[in-house]
Design a protein that fits this description.
The complex is a heterodimer. By secondary structure, chain A is α+β, with helices and mostly antiparallel strands. Chain A is built from four helices and four strands, in the order ααβαβββα. The relative contact order of chain A is 0.09. Classes of the chains: A alpha+beta, B mainly alpha. The interface between A and B is large, with 79 and 74 residues.
Chain lengths: ~210, ~110
């Protein structure tokens, strides 16, 4: 009888203990679920801002790539282009230097006569004045022969006269009509300046092929 | 018989005390969880934002590094082109000067 009683009381207490463990376990599970739900709610709430942060970052990254890329391509293009320009300028400077050197040779007289002839023909002949620099004015130019050739080529009686006026040029000539209404500047400096664009094109075609 | 009944009643009482303690403990767990819920929510929110900001920083850093790398390649290519241009220009210099003079009708 005593033994049976202890068994009954023991069972009552064991069941109570099991219930207690179950109550605590269930409470812990509920607490975990609730905390997990709140964590998910927090993540969910952040989603909009997270999307905004990442979209903005992607846009900025694209912008960085674009800006640095295009800036560097522009700089690289400019580097190559400016080097080409420098090298073409070297050629032009050398050509000018050789023309200046030419003025100190005997050959220059015939070249200057040719320049005057070309100018005379370009102006259509007639009464023309030739303006030269101080040095060239001393050269033995055959203006009569040139006048004759211009007359033949243009069909217009031509008279070329050396002007008393002097120009500041390294070589070449300025040819004017007698009334000074038409002026053709065929000095070296003017020829280079007038034709620089096409000369650079020509030079580029040869220099970089 | 009365003694047996008394012992069972005492056992039931003890059982009820055990369950009561468990319920109190469960209530405490619930209250602690409720108290912790707001912080968990805020922590999760802050963590998500912090991770996004870190990812954003990485994205921009990677973009800058890639762009710098590409920029260096472009610059290297330009330097190479410049060297090639100089070499060509050197060997074609005389022809270009002569062509310029010819263009201006000087022999």
């Amino acid at each position: 009888m005593e033994h049976e009683l202890q068994r009954i009381v023991g069972r009552i207490l064991r069941y109570a203990q099991e219930d207690a463990e179950s109550i605590v376990l269930e409470a812990r599970k509920s607490a975990d679920v609730m905390l997990e739900q709140h964590r998910e709610l927090g993540v969910q709430k952040a989603t909009e801002r997270v999307t905004h942060i990442l979209t903005k970052a992607k846009d900025e990254a694209d912008s960085i790539r674009g800006t640095i890329g295009s800036d560097m391509k522009r700089r690289a293009g400019w580097m190559v282009l400016s080097e080409k320009e420098r090298l073409m300028t070297n050629v032009l400077e050398e050509a000018k230097a050789r023309l200046v050197a030419l003025t100190k040779t005997e050959k220059y007289v015939s070249e200057l006569e040719r320049i005057v002839l070309d100018g005379g023909i370009a102006l259509g002949g007639g009464r023309l004045q030739i303006v030269l620099n101080k040095h060239d004015a001393t050269l033995p130019l055959n203006l009569d022969a040139i006048s004759k050739t211009v007359s033949e080529r243009t069909g217009n009686k031509t008279e070329l006269k050396l002007s008393k006026e002097r120009i500041e040029a390294s070589g070449g000539a300025v040819i004017k009509t007698a009334d000074k209404r038409i002026v053709l500047d065929n000095t070296f400096e003017a020829m280079f300046k007038r034709r620089e664009k096409e000369l650079r094109l020509k030079i580029a075609g040869i220099l970089f092929k | 018989m009365a003694k047996a009944l008394n012992e069972i009643v005492q056992g039931e009482g003890e059982a009820e005390r055990i369950r009561g303690e468990a319920r109190a403990k469960a209530q405490k767990i619930k209250e602690e969880a409720e108290a912790k819920a707001h912080k968990t929510y805020a922590d999760a929110y802050e963590l998500a934002i912090a991770e996004a900001e870190e990812k954003a920083r990485e994205l921009k850093k990677t973009a800058e590094e890639n762009a710098d790398r590409e920029a260096k390649l472009v610059l290297e290519e330009a330097k190479k082109q410049t060297r090639e241009i100089r070499t060509k220009a050197k060997s074609n210099f005389e022809a270009a000067v002569k062509a310029t003079l010819t263009e201006l009708r000087f022999k």
